[in-house]
Structures are given as C-alpha cells and as structure tokens.
Amino acid sequence: MTIILAVILVLLSGISLFVGVLDVNLTGLLSGDVEQLEIFLISRLPRLLAILCTGVGMSVAGLIMQQLCMNKFVSPTTGATISSAQFGILLALLFMPSSTLWSRAVFAFITATLGTWIFVWFIQRIQFKDVVMVPLVGIMFGNVVGGITNYLAYKYEMTQALSTWAVGHFSLVLRGRYEIVYLTVPLVILAFVFANHFNIVGMGKDFSKNLGVPYNLVLFLGLTIAAMITASVVVVVGAISYIGLIVPNIVAMFKGDKIRGTLVDTALFGAIFVLVCDMLGRIVIAPYELPIELIVGILGSILFIGLLLYRLKNGRKAIRLGGAQTGCAAAVTPVDPKGGKKA
Fold first, then answer.
1. For the chain, what are the domain ranges?
2. Is the link from the previous residue into 287 a cis peptide, with omega within 30 of 0?
C-alpha cells in the first residue's frame, strides 16, 4: 500500500506541474524557454512543494491529535487549532501592521498552541467522553475563538486583510513567500521519532505511567507539534478543513490504529488528497481557479458523513485486506503461537 501511494503521488506531482492557465510543457523546459522556466521555478514548483507540505503536515497533525485525545473525530479543525492560528495572525496585523510573514507565523504558533492546550484541558475535564461530544466541544470552542477574531476584525476594519487566511488557496504561493511551510518537514520527522510514545499515551494516563512514559510531557510535545504544523500551513495557505480529520480515518480503516504503522501512509495519502483537490480547483472552471478549501469542503463533507456512519456502526474496527487481520485489537494485542493472548 505504501509503495502504491508513493507511485501515485509521484505521477500526480509530475502532472500537476503542467496544469495551469499559462502553458508550460516539457519540451519548452528542456529547450531552455526562459518564460516557461520562470513560470516553472517561481510558481509551479513552489506551489507543488507547498501542496505536498500542506497535505503531509495537516494529515500527520490530525493523526497525532486523534491518537493523543483518543478520539477519531478530533483534528486541527475540530480542535480549535486553525481558529486559534487565525486569531494569532489577526493580533500580528493589529499590533504589528508592518510585520513580516515570519512575525505573523510566531503569533500564529503561540496562539495555535495555547488554543490546542485549552481544548485538551476542556476535554480532560469531561467525565463521560462520548465519541461525538469531544469534537463538538472543540467546534464550539473554535466558534468562540472565531467569533472573537471576527469581532476584532470588524472593529478595527481588518476583515479584508484577514480574509486572505480565512479561505485556503494556493494561488498566491510564489517563491519567496511560502518557505515557512517547510517547517512541517522536521516536525513530521519529530512526530515519527516519538510515534511509539504517542501510541502509548493514547492508551491512557495509567497505562503510560505503568510503562514509564511521562504522560504530560509526551502529551505536551505531541500537541505542540500538531499546533505548529497547523500554524505554519495557515500562515502560508490559509484555513483548510477536513484534511486532518478525513485522511487519518481513511488510512486507519485499512491499516489499523498503530501510529507508527500508519504515519507514512497517512502522510502520503494526505499529500495525494490535497494535490487532487488542488488540480480539480484549477481544472473545473479553467482559466479561473476555485479555492482548494471549497473542493476539500465538498469532498470532505461527503467523506465525513460516510466515516461518521462507519465509526458509529463498526467502532474502530479496520477493514480486512485479503486474509490479514488488521485493526486496533490486532495492533495492540499480540497472540502467542499456541493461540492464547499474551498478558
């Protein structure tokens, strides 16, 4: 499955470089056409790199949050992380009108991290955690943060400036103003390094303590990684919903819930999903372009309803591929050759 996803991603990446309003073709690039080379290096290649970083980053951030919160419907969207990052950007625009993109990123990092921590603090105090109750708390908290952001934007006449980050799109991604999104790469690598720790923490506080894993420290680290990934994407691209919610769930349906076993496939499928949505946005009403948030919103809503029905019916049970046993139970319950379960 991993090899198939990697091959599909490489093929789609190559195709996306030649999809757009301005004509860029392989013959022109190889012949040294200056105009096509400029378009390729200034716009098409940076856009592709931003798309890949966005897909990989948001998917991994969603996977981390779902594992740490022990709920498959938690994501940067339903965990108030995106709303908090937008709030930070607005604060940067208000207090530092001449701020650079990096200055706004710092504000977004701080507020996204604080917003995510507050959300987790809320859900830890819910005595009976229903599968739907946790994301509903996050959505309500995100709406509160979004309401405060909109109020300040209207009061100080910043709505037009804030609208750039309200709807995610890649049309303004050019060389020199997207490099912040590269921060997702070391953060994703860090997530892979601590994948086993996230998996253990996802099984509960008592279980973590029994295995000698510092629960609060790993929880703090994981949420910070997810928040920083989300903020770096929002600063460059804007708000894109559903990626961190849909992609990890689809991969988990086939490969189970063990985070180390699904992290690579989640990253690859997330990149493919964002790339396909972006290409659709460029093709549907060409030569005009639809924001990727619109395409992701349509497809994500349909997939979310399907996932909701599947989870409510089957819980965390994974789909069998061939004769292999997959799923949460298979991932965490080893079986000895005699047929008995190990303690």
1. 32-159+167-330
2. yes
